[in-house]
Design goal:
- Helix content is 57%, strand content 9%.
- The chain is mostly helical and 136 residues long.
- It has 2 domains: 6-40 and 123-128, no CATH class; 47-121.
- A two-stranded antiparallel ribbon has the order 1-2.
- InterPro entries: Znf_RING-CH (IPR011016), Znf_RING/FYVE/PHD (IPR013083).
Length: 136
């Protein structure tokens, strides 16, 4: 390992996706860690990301308002405790809240994937001398 630049090896392995040395056929011993924070790439704030934030806020508000109206009308007490049939507008509110909740969950999943992808790009593989390697 002393005869090669570690940065060159890291670059070559990330491009070639090789997990074994082509010369001795030994697996690389790897240690994954984050780069120093000064070397992190800046997050790219795109129009798509801004649109996602705005969409999540709209989905959240579209979920909260119908739920607030249902609580104000004592929907759960009327329908589930007293056994009265729902009012005509209640079913629309329930559907609107359910659709908003599904949209919000989907948008949160995209946020999660975006954030974890950003952190994954900040990781770097370090190659270390394999303690189990055969000495030739």
């Amino acid at each position: 390992m002393a005869d090669i630049h570690e940065n060159c090896l890291n670059e070559w392995v990330s491009i070639s996706k090789a997990m074994k040395c082509e010369i001795c056929k030994e697996s690389y011993a790897q240690a994954e860690r984050f780069r120093p924070i000064r070397e992190w790439e800046k997050p790219k704030i795109t129009f798509r990301l801004c649109l996602m934030v705005a969409s999540y806020i709209c989905a959240y508000l579209s979920f909260v308002k119908p739920c607030h109206i249902l609580v104000e009308r004592k929907f759960f007490d009327r329908v589930f405790v007293r056994g009265y049939p729902p009012r005509s507008g209640d079913s629309v509110l329930i559907v609107a809240a359910a659709v908003s909740m599904i949209m919000g969950g989907y948008i949160l999943k995209i946020f999660y994937d975006t954030i974890t992808g950003y952190f994954d790009r900040q990781r770097v593989l370090r190659f270390i001398d394999n303690p189990n390697a055969k000495n030739n």
